[in-house]
Design a protein that fits this description.
Layout (H helix, E strand, L loop, with lengths): L1 E2 L3 E6 L12 E6 L1 H11 L4 E8 L2 H13 L1 E2 L3 E4 L5 E5 L9 E4 L15 H5 L3 E5 L6 H16 L3 E5 L23 H8 L7 E5 H8 L4 H11 L3 E5 L5 E4 L11 E3 L12 H13 L5 H16 L11 H9 L11 H11 L7 E6 L3 H10 L5 H17 L5 E5 L5 H7 L5 E5 L16 H5 L6 E8 L6 H21 L3 E6 L10 H12 L5 E4 L5 H14 L5 E5 L5 H11 L5 E6 L1 H12 L5 H36 L1
Parallel strand pairs: 1-4, 2-7, 4-5, 4-6, 9-10, 10-11, 11-12, 15-16, 15-22, 16-17, 17-18, 18-19, 19-20, 20-21, 21-22
Antiparallel strand pairs: 2-3, 7-8, 12-13, 13-14
Helix pairs in contact: 1-8, 6-7, 8-9, 10-11, 13-14, 13-21, 17-18, 19-21, 20-21
The structure holds adenosine-5'-triphosphate (ATP) and the ligand O=C(O)C[C@@H](O)[C@H](O)C(=O)CO.
The site of adenosine-5'-triphosphate has 23 residues, from helix 8 and helix 9.
Length: 638
Amino acid sequence: MTIGRSCIDLYGEQVGGRLEDMASFAKYIGGSPTNTAVGAARLGLRSGLLSRVGADHFGRFIREQLAREGVSTAGVATDPERLTALVFLGIRDPDTFPLIFYRENCADMALDVSDVDPDYIRSAGAVLINGTHLSRPNVFDACVHACTIASQAGAKVVFDIDYRPVLWGLTGRDMGENRFVADDAVTARLQQVLPLCDLVVGTEEEVHILGGGTDTLAALRAIRERTSALLVLKRGPHGCVAFPDAIPARLDDGVVGEGLQVEVFNVLGAGDAFMAGFLRGWLRDEPLAACCRYANACGAIVVSRHGCSPAMPTWEELQVFLASDQRPFRLRDDVALEQLHWATTRAGDWDELMVLAMDHRSQFEALCAQAGADPARIATFKALALRAVDRVARGQPGFGLLLDGRYGMRALEAAADYPYWIGRPIEMPGSRPLDFESSPDVATELATWPRNHVVKCLAFYHPDDPDDLRERQERQLLRLQDAARKTGHELLLEIIAARAGAVDDHTVARAIQRFYDLGMRPDWWKLEPSDSADAWRNIERTIVANDAHCRGVVLLGLSAPEEELVASFQVAAARPLVKGFAVGRTIFADAAARWFGGEIDDEAAVDDLAARFGVLVEAWRRARSANIERHAAADCAR
Ligand SMILES: Nc1ncnc2c1ncn2[C@@H]1O[C@H](COP(=O)(O)OP(=O)(O)OP(=O)(O)O)[C@@H](O)[C@H]1O
Ligand SMILES: O=C(O)C[C@@H](O)[C@H](O)C(=O)CO
């Protein structure tokens, strides 16, 4: 359980300039204990945060994000009187990281003993406190109270010295990045917690403030006089050294954890990652050398990425990183590691996904023209789709909508308040070669999309297309994937091969393999229904062999009659990787024609859409459970 700061990090997206010249800021959850709680959860520890957030949008964002990361929020109180704290951070050069704290009367700095629930504290195997937060008497008291309870209950007490002089009022407010100002009062305050500690971690400067002098060995000895805790000294690129017992004559006589050679991009958050990595080993009683190894690797990974909490590695990622002996100095260039990071930190898992596809544009224009209706009505009809999905889904996960920004914007906006999966098309309808709607610079376009919008791209693509056409489409898709990753959006790639040539049991699998060979890793595939079990087996095999983390496949409908779709579900549901469907015209064509023609009103249209969507939902679920039963029976028979 980590205790203390929880804020919003607003990270300059432009790198290599002054904060004055930065123009846009990425929003992440931050604050050293918050970052460590996220890092620990990603490494497989059960973690929780004790803090306060404001009753505002950012407070809610912190809660949501912690929940997504698997960090318990049972100890996160909402303070109705104060706002969530903000921190602006920038990357200027490898030695300069400007930082401004907006922490006046903010929620987390108001933490006090009333927030410390003894039972909750006793539920933890370890508590972590941070030095910076001890600058406020109320927080100091809360931390000491929590540590005392934890210690009496037999839990470990961990102290990250984490010194930010600006939050002790020792530097100008524009000097948030300053890491050291000697001050006897700070030293005295920090030393008070030492008798409670089992583990103390700090950089050389942090050891200097805690020990009360700038000779590192002397400072360590001063600390050792006050605690028998394990002491760990972080040494930036040189790794770390741990002192379980008496402080030796030379730093290198401690348990040395070698640093890793990586390009420094951003040191902010490295210490928090280091702590998470160290705890992953230490709390599971691993040898000190292993704890240091995990810690240095986590620190090095974060040093090479943008952001603090989002940069924290997962356990799977850390293991791959440690096992590899060939990594680029510029770690962000390690494509496989970046992919693993992306795939293992995406929010949520999807056992099933049933989507009402309403992102058609040309088809709605045609429907409107046929009925002589005003095209402005398309937006109204699309908004009905959200009501229909909600009627079937009733707030349950596993449902979604595909909606376009051209006519579906009102529905997209409204969908933000529901828990459903949202996909949004980027392709120019009907284009082959593939073209993008809106800006030709697809990254600029995606930068304006909310993060939870999954980018859907339909490509009319056949692996045997003429080379120039095929390559042109592939280049577009590679650009799209790059843009989606850089803007933090998931990508759903829809392949329709049947319109472009003959299709056999290998065609779609060959197309998918080609995309993997090119380096594409779409989060989702949307594929044509097929009644061939072999075709599905080939598809699944190809995906699993190339991207074990792919979220899955959804079936598209292509205006097929309902019975045909239901029959195709039976075959596809045998493959676990197929998660459901994204079907449009089969569901909406009839209702839309009658609604645009003035034959039915909104209510009747919602009834019809919901009924048809419901039929497919039931059919999919039936097909899926029949398959599960069949497999279970086969297992029993074996
Ligand atoms: N240049 C680097 N190369 C490799 N590893 C590094 C580098 N800098 C930091 N690390 C790793 O990260 C750990 C923590 O870094 P650092 O000493 O900068 O912590 P910190 O000042 O507490 O960080 P923070 O900015 O989060 O407060 C180091 O002990 C090391 O393991
Ligand atoms: O710890 C802080 O308050 C600053 C953070 O917001 C930021 O996440 C960071 O620099 C972590 O070390």
